[in-house]
C-alpha cells in the first residue's frame, strides 16, 4: 500500500517504521529523518502552514495515513512543571487544527484509513485520580476520554474529531485507529533508586518505587511498537458490520503490571505484544522492589 507517515523524523515514527516494511512509504516532516527506509520518499512539509494545494499533493494516491506529527508545547514530559500547564493551550490547539487538516486532506484524497498517534494522557485523569488511589485497577478503551492537562485534552480531541469522519458525515466513511501510546522509551532504573530526588512536577505523579511500578506498566518495547503499527495499518478491523470504524487501542507491551487495557488492541487489530517489562528489567525489579522497601502504586508521602 501507499502509506503516508507524518512527523516521520520523530521518535515514535522512527520506532514504527520497521513495522511498515513492504509498503510504499511517503515520509513527511519539517525536518528530514536521520535515515530513510529502502524505497521510501521524503516530502518536507509543515502540515499546519502548507497551502491547500501542497497538502492535496502530499495525500494524492495514499491509502493509509499514519499521523504522528506533533507541535511541542514545552517539555517532552507532560508532567514537567515547565512551562506551566496553563501556558500550553495555544500550542495544543494548533495540534488539533493540524489533525483537522490531516483528516480533511485524507478524506478528499480518498484515503481508506488513518492511524492516529494518540496518548495514554487522553484519559489520564483515571490514572491520576483513581489508579494511583487504588480506586480501580484498569483504565479501559471505552472509558470517557478525560484528561487533567492540555496535552491529554488535545489527544482526546484528536480522537473525538475523527468520529464524524468515521461516521460518514462528509460523504463517505473512513477508518480510524487511535493508538494511545504508553511509554516507548527505555526505563532508567536509576531515576527510581532510593535517595534520588524526584523531578519537579505539575501533575500528580507517584515517586520512588511506586513510580518505577508505573514505568513498568506503561512500557512499550521497540519490537512491540513496530508490531503495533503494523497491525494498525494492515489488519482488517474486527468490528460488527454496522459499527462505526473508529477504534481506540492502548499501545503498551504485555506488561505484568499493566493498568491500561489491551482488549481492543488484541481483538480488533490483532495486536499480540511479545515483551514484558517485568522480564526485560528483572534485575532492577529485584533490586528496587524485592530487596528494598516496596512502595505501592499510589500516593506517596509528600506527593504534590
Automatic annotation (TrEMBL):
InterPro entries associated with the record: Epimerase_deHydtase, NAD(P)-bd_dom_sf
Protein name: NAD(P)-dependent oxidoreductase
Annotated source species: Ramlibacter lithotrophicus
NAD-dependent epimerase/dehydratase domain location: 3-182
Pfam families from the UniProt entry: Epimerase
SUPFAM superfamilies, per the entry: NAD(P)-binding Rossmann-fold domains
Highest taxon above the source species: Bacteria
Gene3D superfamilies in alphabetical order: NAD(P)-binding Rossmann-like Domain
Amino acid at each position: 500500500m501507499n502509506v503516508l507517515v507524518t512527523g516521520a523524523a520523530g521518535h515514535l515514527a522512527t520506532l514504527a517504521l520497521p513495522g511498515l516494511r513492504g509498503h510504499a512509504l511517503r515520509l513527511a516532516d519539517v525536518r528530514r529523518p536521520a535515515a530513510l527506509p529502502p524505497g521510501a520518499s521524503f516530502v518536507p512539509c509543515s502540515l499546519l502552514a502548507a497551502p491547500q494545494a501542497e497538502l492535496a499533493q502530499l495525500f494524492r494516491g495514499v491509502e493509509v495515513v499514519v499521523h504522528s506529527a506533533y507541535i511541542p508545547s514545552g517539555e517532552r514530559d507532560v508532567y514537567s512543571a515547565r512551562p506551566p500547564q496553563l501556558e500550553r493551550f495555544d500550542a495544543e490547539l494548533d495540534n488539533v487544527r493540524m489533525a483537522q487538516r490531516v483528516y480533511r486532506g485524507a478524506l478528499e484524497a480518498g484515503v481508506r484509513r488513518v492511524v492516529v498517534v494518540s496518548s495514554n494522557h487522553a484519559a489520564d485523569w483515571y490514572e491520576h485520580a483513581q489508579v494511583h488511589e487504588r480506586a480501580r485497577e484498569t483504565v479501559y478503551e471505552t472509558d470517557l476520554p478525560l484528561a487533567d492537562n492540555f496535552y491529554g485534552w488535545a489527544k482526546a480531541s484528536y480522537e473525538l474529531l475523527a468520529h464524524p469522519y468515521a461516521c460518514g458525515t462528509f460523504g463517505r466513511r473512513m477508518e480510524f485507529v487511535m493508538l494511545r501510546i504508553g511509554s516507548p522509551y527505555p526505563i532508567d532504573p536509576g531515576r527510581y533508586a532510593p535517595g534520588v530526588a524526584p523531578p519537579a512536577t505539575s501533575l500528580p505523579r507517584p515517586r520512588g518505587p511506586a513510580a518505577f511500578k508505573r514505568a513498568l506498566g506503561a512500557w512499550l518495547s521497540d519490537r512491540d511498537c513496530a508490531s503495533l503499527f503494523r497491525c494498525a495499518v494492515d489488519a482488517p478491523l474486527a468490528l460488527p458490520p454496522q459499527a462505526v470504524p473508529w477504534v481506540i487501542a492502548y499501545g503498551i507491551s504485555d506488561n505484568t503490571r499493566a493498568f491500561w487495557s489491551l482488549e481492543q488492541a488484541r481483538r480488533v487489530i490483532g495486536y499480540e505484544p511479545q515483551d514484558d517489562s517485568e522480564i526485560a528489567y528483572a534485575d532492577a525489579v529485584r533490586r528496587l522492589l524485592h530487596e528494598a522497601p516496596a512502595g505501592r502504586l499510589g500516593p506517596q508521602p509528600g506527593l504534590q
